[in-house]
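Q: Could you fold this chain for me?
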Amino acid sequence: MYDAWTRAELLTQWYCPNPDLELKVQADVRVGGDYVVEMGPHVVRGTYLEVEPPHRLAFSWKWDGTEDEPTRVEVELTEVPDGTRMLLIHSGFATDEDAANHRMGWEPEVGRLVGLLTVQQPDPATDRG
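A: Sure. Below is the predicted structure, expressed as structure tokens.
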């Protein structure tokens, strides 16, 4: 799952709330490295603050064209018996409305991330490979 957060070719498959928008990602995944995500006309950028593969990633988040202070995104990944538990924290919003809008954006993205990572296991009764 860590790769899905750090490899541009995987990020472009899920990292936008609107799958109809063209998505471009540039990411220099190291502490102090920058990223840029273009979601159609919307651009968000930031800097990686913590990079601890394969369990933790933290980065700043700022939309182009706004005067808002950057917010902070933290991703913690923990192995569990059936896969990986992901804790996503996006904090530092100026208003509750801004926080709610970002939550609405993350929900479909996380759904697509789960779909990307869910692999159907072959059924030994029907798969004679």
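A (continued): Helices lie at 2-6, 8-11, 96-117.
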